[in-house]
Design a protein that fits this description.
This is PTS lactose/cellobiose transporter subunit IIA. Helix content is about 85%, strand content about 0%. It is mostly helical. The protein has one domain: Methane Monooxygenase Hydroxylase, Chain G, domain 1 (Up-down Bundle). The longest helix has 30 residues. The chain is elongated, with a radius of gyration of 16 Å. The mean pLDDT is about 95.
Length: about 100
């Protein structure tokens, strides 16, 4: 049960981060830069939470406690990587909208 909890934490925080990043882009597009920056900061906080969950799994494995590879874990990792990339791109979009 603990593993599913960790995996769902990664998925949940990653999904929230991606949603915040997308919303940040929309606010930047509407020239609401302060709100865009706030949402981008929230996205970064969510990614830190997701990354913390992932780090816990990595540390356990480094101590010799093997993690069973499951499709759900792969799915969680995919969400984390996608959200991280999306947040990075959102940051670039916000900067570009800020210059317009």
């Amino acid at each position: 049960m603990e593993m599913e909890h960790v995996i769902m934490g990664i998925i949940m925080h990653s999904g929230d981060a991606k949603s915040n990043a997308m919303e940040a882009i929309q606010h930047a597009k509407a020239n609401e830069m302060k709100k865009a920056e706030q949402l981008l900061e929230q996205a970064e906080k969510e990614l830190l939470e997701a990354h913390g969950e992932q780090t816990g799994l990595i540390q356990k494995e480094a101590r010799g406690e093997k993690t069973e590879l499951s499709l759900l874990l792969v799915h969680a990792q995919d969400h984390l990587m996608t959200a991280t990339t999306f947040k990075d791109l959102a940051k670039e979009f916000i900067e570009l909208y800020g210059r317009l």
